Amino acid sequence: MVLHDLRYSAHSLAAASREATRPRPRLVRRAVEVYSFPRHRGDRSVTRWAAVEERRARRRLRARMGLILRLVNSPGGELALDVAETVDVPSARHRRDALWHA
User: What one-character DSSP code corresponds to residue 79?
Assistant: First the structure.
């Protein structure tokens, strides 16, 4: 598979700023060898794998949000907001993200 793209190099951006003109992009050719096309052939293994990954991502998100809720709603009655800010919450890009990375 061959992809053609237009990119600005650092040299063209610097030259354009010196000359007060628009930068000129250069053509970049990228070649990739693909040995299998599971999505093209209608193979369901990618779909099953993506569904499992999306379920795992949602489970991780629910677990982290549950931890934050337990920290904020502490039984002592006071809010532990400074402790809750230290919990790392993964991004909620689970919908179709696994299919994109397949």
Answer: -
Residue 12 pLDDT > 80: yes
pTM: 0.46
Rounded Cα gap, residues 37 and 13, in angstroms:
38
Which position has the token pair 């628009």? Answer: 22
Other beta carbons less than 10 A from residue 98's beta carbon: 20
From 65, 71, 57, select the one nearest 101 (Cα to Cα). Answer: 57
